[in-house]
Amino acid sequence: MSLNLQTHTEHFTNPLYLESGRILEPYDITYETYGTLNEDKSNVVVVCHALTGSHHAAGLYEGEAKPGWWDGFIGPKKAIDTDKYFVICSNVIGSCFGSTGPMSPQHPYHEPYRYKFPVVSIKDMVKAQRILFDRLDIHRVHAIVGGSMGGMQALQFAIHYPNFANKIIAMATTHATQPWAIAFNKVAQESILNDPDFKQGYYDPDLLKEQGLSGMAVGRMAGHISFLSPESMREKFGREYKLTDGLYELFGKFQVESYLEYNGYNFTKWFDPLSYLYITKAINIYDLSRGFDSLDEALKRITSALYLISFKNDLLFKNSEMREMAQILKKIGNRNHDYIDIDSNYGHDAFLVELNKFENNVKDALDG
User: Fold this and answer.
1) Based on the domain organization, do 170 and 306 belong to the same domain?
2) Which of 38, 143, 159, 273 has the smallest CB count inside 10 Å?
3) What is the rounded CA–CA span in Å between residue 152 and residue 50?
4) Catalytic residue among 121, 148, 229, 232
């Protein structure tokens, strides 16, 4: 069977009322689908992406060297089996891959929004997706799956649209972003804002695609530190030194330094800095209990079967944050949830890398 990858963009002219009280209109949502929708539309699996992800979760575009970000996970006979399921992954609003974001033209002008773009929350991102599914005439889905910021979206769906999904699978995420993660985001935000090439938000995007933005690269390096763990770094790089550099050259490099540089500088050529600021803001203000008296009250709204998956050595969203959710669910008498902590030294990015450690759990949850 083939993956049947298709990319679409939907245009919406009705205002999207945001959590902040502001509105976004008009707006676009770009999304990708895999597999085939069955007749009664009962085989839909929604995949939500993380901070720098996009709607391109699996498969290869023509001329593309690197497949979608969860390609090992989505496809024929994979954990999310496209022979069985019709998978939809949409790009969140505020991002820079086709859905409306800070560098989209502001109606009725042709100039980009830049700082005039409203702050969006994770709840807003989910609301926009829900409107997209309505337009596609999909009113209930089999499951919603996501890791990191994707897991935040999955949990928001569970609470704010309790009858929308039969199953929610959230991994490597949290119920509210903690100061540790906000601190890493702060380094990235400040690095961007203080780069003279950022021009206080009035940069030329084409120039950045060519040259990158060194401030953002530095911020991204901090991010990469939070995605790994001391153990995974030791395993991955050890104290290996770059073969071409001398130990006593001031700018000679360890392998770990080369890795951070490569990933940092490369990143700035394909990800927009304003989008980065807006999405890290959305992550920072994310809190499932906002609008409720307590987290207990928020979690009481969940009617879907809920599967929580944390990773032992995740430094960004610690496993204790997901365990706390599981404990509350137990306390409030929710009998339809399952929590597992995956034995992994990889760190936060394990949900993208160590698929073999949890793919059977996801398969069982989806098929069970």
Assistant:
1) yes
2) 38
3) 9
4) 148
Using CA atoms, how far apart are residues 358 and 62, in angstroms rounded to an integer? 30
Q: Which of 281, 299, 320 is the last residue of a domain?
A: 281
CATH of residue 304: 3.40.50.1820
pLDDT at 90: 98
At how many degrees (to 10) do helices 273-285 and 214-227 cross?
A: 40
Question: Is the pLDDT score of 55 beyond 80?
Answer: yes
Q: Is 348 a catalytic residue?
A: yes
Evaluate whether residue 1 is within a structural domain.
no
pLDDT single digits (tens) 122-156: 999 999 999 999 999 999 999 999 999 999 999 99
C-alpha–C-alpha distance, residues 103 and 105, integer Å: 6
Query: Does the predicted model carry a pTM greater than 0.90?
Result: yes
pLDDT per residue as tens digits for the range 156-184: 999 999 999 999 999 999 999 999 999 99
Instruction: Produce one character per residue of 21-36: b if its CB has 16 or more CB atoms within 10 Å, e if not.
Output: eeebeebbbbbbbbbe
314 is catalytic: yes
**90, 226, 348, 349: which is the annotated catalytic residue?**
348
Residues 6+ apart with CB under 8 A from 291: 298
Query: Among residues 104, 314, 337, 344, which one is catalytic?
Result: 314
Question: Is 142 designated active site?
Answer: no
Q: Which domain holds residue 202?
A: 181-281
pLDDT at 247: 95
Q: Residue 230's domain is classified under what CATH number?
A: 1.10.1740.110
